[in-house]
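Everyone, describe these structure tokens:
***
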Amino acid sequence: MSVISLVAIIATTAVFASPVSAVDHPRLLLSADDIPQLQARAGRDPWRRIKAVVEHSTSLVYRRDGNYYERLTSMRTIMRQSALACILYPESRQVYVDHIVEQMRNWDDINRLRRLQPDRDWVSMITGGDAFFLSVIALDVIHDDLSREQLTEIEARLRTWYEYERDQARGSWYLAKYGAMGLWALYIDDQPLFEQYASAYDQQLRQHFTDDGVALVGGNYASARLAGGELAKTYFMDILTRVGWHDYYTDPLLADFYDWFYAGMVT
């Protein structure tokens, strides 16, 4: 239960309705109108067990004593749990907001370490991309709790990661890259940039499948990329659905893929 995700619980339970205003926060994965429903659902299983886990998310701290991968993983876990705790424990919201703000300062360390890695680095784009993806969602959740100075400080750190990966990163992990960067474009309300990344993500996504939905990359890769293990790859579809860019939940190709993946991949 230590890897419970804000993205996973909301993406699989929230009602995805009409697009929300660009000036509203939160607006990426949920809106303020979704919060009462999520809080009510957390009163019964299995969501009640998830709620109990994230209550203690303030005990999670950035792993400065760990290696590069462990540091990125710790940031990813902190953001996914603390952001959800902000929603499910409104009476203690400020405690979780303060924790997120404090832990976000460690993006200075991540940005420093990134420059020590090869430009073509799997950990930076996949694990780092997931940490970035969850950090942007967490920032969206607490946006209206922050002062202008706090927002400017956090956004500058995240923008540093975004710009370095945009300009320097090399490799074939484009689905993760476009998912993470498309989320950032949506957060900063740059519609042309968002359209660019969303279209590139969609194109890369569809290249994974035959016309009838079988994953060309095979079962193991399909599981890693599109079963929730690599967040920016999997859950950017939920973001795109929520904001009205494309409804992946009714997309025939994606339906065929997940039918194959969960029912026919192993016979």
About this structure: The chain has 13 helices and no strands.
